[in-house]
Amino acid sequence: MSFTSRFKENAATVGNGLLFAVALTTPVVLGVAFQAFSLVSAASFGAMFALLIAPRHGALARVVGISTGGLLVVLAAALGIALQGRHDLVLVLLFLLSWLAALPRPDQAYLGLMVKYVASSVLLTSFGFSATLPMALAFLGGIALGICLSLVSMLFEADDATTPLEEFKAFLHGATNGRLFGVAVPVTVLFSTLAARYFSFSDPAWVGLTVLFVMHSDGATELFRIWARTLGTLAGVLVSAVILYNVTAPLHIAVAIGVAAFGMPYAKGHYVLFSFAITCAVLLLIDISMLQMGGDMSLLRWRLIDTVIACACVLLSNLTLRLIRRLRHRGEPPAGQAA
């Protein structure tokens, strides 16, 4: 790689890091200014969601793709709230959404992320997460901020990816993961979530949510993600605990959030580092949102436990899939051997 190409790549990464930092810290500053701490995390998550899901294919695709994804997440949250207490319907819906989330291939980045976030929204709200209309509006406000920042990123993002419409057409024409994996994901999500609820976990939905984002159609990649996610989350929890134990001012915590957000583009492709950065950012944002209730240091312990249990469930699912595939191919002649 030439010096010019390397310089442009590094400049793009720095630019994206600054945009992520602005996306996550702007709501904190506004929350402090208007004393609206409970809305901080919703707005920041909306902005982060927009930047993570943004299709790298022109202004129109970005605006339409991000807006559509944001509206679907809000509608999914409303549906989850409406289904609270109706456990049978919730389980059926979670199975269907988790199945859909498992089907997009790794190269269908927009479609895969969008369905995962929609499924996560239903999962969190149907299991008791208290979402309100002001929080939904704050999330959409964060989406608007994220759209603006995504358009700015076009100044230094040179490569165009496929559009969401092209991904959707390929998906409809059969470009999906295998059927076995498509069934394994929803089964693992439901099993892990129900097990966490049975054992009275603080937030059972976090376990199922983690399963959604760790499971991968490539078994080897999935095994790597299991230990990488656990290690990154452990480091993120420990660093967040140190920060929250020593720092109480929201604006000072916002500095740490900005640093974690700035590192996200650098950490892409490095699952340990990305898990560490996003864990720090999420836990610090949630603590600021609960500042008027004394923060939520207890979430740190539960987040680590949720991750370990979820990764154990994914490992069990991975080993089961390997066993099933081995049994299905037993007795078949080697690939190079004539029939």
From TrEMBL:
GO cellular component: membrane
Main location group: membrane
Residue ranges occupied by any Integral membrane bound transporter domain in the UniProt entry: 193-316
Key words of the record: Membrane, Transmembrane, Transmembrane helix
Any Pfam family matching the protein: FUSC_2
Subcellular location per the Swiss-Prot or TrEMBL entry: Membrane
Membrane topology: Multi-pass membrane protein
InterPro entries cross-referenced by the UniProt entry: Memb_transporter_dom
Membrane-spanning intervals of the chain: 12-30, 36-53, 60-81, 110-129, 135-156, 177-199, 234-259, 271-290, 302-321
Highest taxon listed in the record's lineage: Bacteria
Protein name: Integral membrane bound transporter domain-containing protein
Lineage: Bacteria, Pseudomonadati, Thermodesulfobacteriota, Desulfovibrionia, Desulfovibrionales
